[in-house]
Amino acid sequence: MCSLTACVTVFVLLTISTTHSPATDLGYLLHKNPARVQAFELSFGKAHVFYPQASEERCTAALLLDVDPVALVRGRGSVSTDYVNDRPYVASSFLSVAIARVFGSALGGRCRDRPELVAKPLQLDAGIAALPCRSADEVRQLFEPLGYEIGIEPRDGSSGNYRNVTLSGRKTLAELLTHLYVVIPVLDGRKHYWVGDAEVDKLVARGEGWLEDHPRRDLIVRRYLKHRDNLASDALARLADDQGPVSPDSGDRPGAEAFATLSDARLAAVARVLKESNAARVVDLGCGEGRLIEQLLADPRFREIVGVDVSVRALEAAARRLRLDRMPERQRRRIKLLQGTMTYRDRRIEGFDAVAVIEALEHLDPERLGAFERVLFGFAKPETVVVTTPNREYNARFPGLAAGGLRHSDHRFEWTRQEFSAWADTVASAHGYTVTFEPVGEVDEVLGAPTQMGIFRRCA
After folding, report:
1. Strand, coil or helix: what is 335?
2. Please, how many CA atoms are within 13 Å of residue 301, restricted to the half-sphere of its CB?
3. Is 241 helix (H, G, I), strand (E, B) or coil?
4. Which pTM does this prediction carry?
5. Exposed/middle/buried for 390, CB within 10 Å: 0-12, 13-18, 19+?
6. Please, which residues bridge with residue 66 across strands?
7. CB count in 10 Å sphere of residue 109
8. Using an 8 Å Cβ cutoff, are 262 and 255 in contact?
9. What is the DSSP pairing of strand 384-390 with strand 354-358?
10. Is pLDDT of 13 > 70?
11. Is the pLDDT of residue 198 over 80?
């Protein structure tokens, strides 16, 4: 506890330090001048930012909260007394809200004055005071998979349910803030505000690139959404619908942009094949948030584009991505978004020129593959089918992936090149198609490419 010159009693709940040279670059990234103490009005009190140290060798920013427990109680009969009483003293959802309000630009990965710093991993140390948690192991299970070294000690004079925690690692500042923003209320297990559909969108957006493959993903989702089963189910479905293996793919080449590069390469390869097929009416089966549809829409040769997904949330995200509500009517008529599955016959997708199935096959249980084959090749019978799926052999290139592990926690299987080829040849022969194969992504001479693509063409 300390007092600022304005005589406001506040509690230091978060410090962020770096030894990056010059360490004062932290001030640019946080958009906060190390020479000033700054205060920010919040709905539940005030947040204060100051720098206890700011040299070129080491710089530390401190975030302090002044939570008004009396204001919290007024008009909030549903808020319990013990909840209100400990809020000024512990790291909770109030701290997450303060991070978003005070460090919003840094959380969003924006830095006007030094944009080159945004994507640069720095040696960062975060100190979190009085973090509510059931055990030290729980803290480790949530933060260690994200690549942090962790220090944990009981908070002086507190019960065993609160600990002072330090996190150390080479991260971008946006990564660190994002992890804190999501995980702190998960450890606390409570939130001071209403949790609804907007929180699902927030969690999926903040979790992109790390939550999909976190070993405690389900626990994080359910606690973040206050165990509201309908919201948790939606969030988990949207995370499972993400295109491909997020965390491991970030290791296939240097830099944080590696996964985006592979994902973009997949989309470009599929779009190219669809154009070469002269298809005018296309279905994206398992369309997720509509990234392929967005690419195809830019080409007038595709007169009708249908996206199908089992997740309503994913379809809503696709509609937002495509801006359907603001799209000119002529363009809007080219697109349909339909809820459906890959394993039940759907006459709405029959008679199309081409169907794309991008990084979706491996999310099916193996015993459902036969149903998928009948739906697509037996009933829909498009002239062209493009399927992409991970190459399991390439997983050896991912240092963070355990031997024999799969790239995504929702993957039911992953095929080697020989296994994919055998499956595709069998399906093609049974349903009157030919099939050819292409690699997608950087090709290893021994292991092949990270993504394998099969191109099926119906025999005349």
Report:
1. strand
2. 11
3. coil
4. 0.52
5. buried
6. 46
7. 17
8. no
9. parallel
10. yes
11. no
Max distance between CA atoms of the chain, in angstroms, equals 83
- Could you identify the residue written with the tokens 């924006």? 110
What type of residue is 118? V
> What is the rounded distance in angstroms from the CA atom of residue 388 to the CA atom of residue 390?
7
Residues with Cβ < 8 Å from 446, sequence gap 6 or more?
Answer: none
Note whether 311 and 204 are within 8 A (CB). no
SS3 sequence of 168-205: EEEECHHHHHHHHHHHHHHHHCCCCCCCCHHHHHHHHH
Structure tokens at 247: 């965390």
What's 354's DSSP letter? E
Runs of H (alpha helix) within 87-154: 93-102, 104-107, 136-143
366's tokens: 């193996």
The kind and range of the H/E element at 29 are helix 25-30
Place of tokens 């997983």: 395
CA atoms within 13 A on the CB side of 35: 0
pLDDT in tens, 312-350: 778 888 998 898 988 889 889 999 999 888 888 899 999
Instruction: Burial-class residue 281 by CB neighbours within 10 Å (0-12, 13-18, 19+).
Output: middle
